[in-house]
Amino acid sequence: MTQPVRALDMAPCHSPRSAPFMRIASISLVKDEADILEGFVRHNLHFVDRMYIIDDRSTDNTPEILRRLCAESDAVRVLEDGWTGAFHQARRTTAAMRLIQKHEDWDIILPLDADEMICASDRAVFEEDLAAIPAGMAGAFAEMRYLAGPNDDMAIADPLTRVRQSLGYNPASVFKSLAPKALLKDATLAFDEGNHSLLSHGVRVPTHTLPRVPLAHFAIRSVDQIAVKCMKHYVGWRSREDYTANFVPTLVAGAQALRDEPRFALSPSAAIIPAYCAGYALEAAADRPFTERRGTLKWPELAVSPPYAQVIGLFDQLIARAAAGDALVKAAGGDMSADAVARVIAERNALQLEMDRLTASTSKLARAYWKAVGRRLFRSLRKRNLVKR
């Protein structure tokens, strides 16, 4: 029987730690999250041992905040996955999971978005819930969603302090998955889109939700923030070659709601918020400060993410892609046909695959051949005026 939505019972736990100490790592894919990023890292480091973060070409203060956090603590690591295309969250998070497990032994690996905070009274409670995940099952967090309201004091830069309106949470629901050590041995283990479930051989793994530890999800921190988020995700998801209408429907609905806005300036009651929160009982939101907050900001002056700067940054990335497309057309001899451009792309991809294979080889002959292939690729691109002489 589904348990009712309820507020989080945060009575302190005074029992001794019953579970053995676990090594826990998180993976995050972030983009233009400067307003919440420092708070996100400082809070969650009280519950995980290391945070691996991929910066997805941010245009705000996100890279600087990450640089400072990495300099301050070895528990924060920035991963470079080289991705420059559409938004493929599941593929990139899965690749990161496999990479970090290969280099270090973890008991739990969990994905966290930059607006998600582990909501527990202490780490012992968190580990006790993790230790209770049945064998062969994935773990999961329920969601406790926080929402910006019209009475928020926007002079407070820190959204973990400013945003107080929260919906209850259903302790039996599944919001975000996590992978226990036993499942990490499965070479086919993968996250689905949104990281809501784990898949083994393409089939969803049975899931056990942590009963006492949800994720506090600061999904809507201001109307400007959610408007820009919907626009960026609209571009990212819609540009995927495999996009279908069932991908992130709320984000797309939010972007569609912006079409009907008569002005750039949005009111706190703009239609984008109910469109993005379809299925949530917004009228049930209650005042609940995030009292589980851990850590304080050292650089509040960086916790800004101007909306227009982010939109212009998105335009710059789209312009770069269009310029690359023009370069391919030029390389194909000015022929605009899809076949001509496809031939250039296929040649480049074939050479890159060969170089990747040879780079991984320890053979002296292979390394020499790799250099020869590299020279061949350089000459091929130079003939097409894609690289400078």
From TrEMBL:
Coiled-coil spans in chain: none
Keyword Transferase: yes
The UniProt record lists the keyword Glycoprotein: no
One term of GO molecular function: transferase activity
Assigned keywords, A-Z: Transferase
Name this protein carries in UniProt: Putative glycosyltransferase
Protein's organism: Azorhizobium caulinodans (strain ATCC 43989 / DSM 5975 / JCM 20966 / LMG 6465 / NBRC 14845 / NCIMB 13405 / ORS 571)
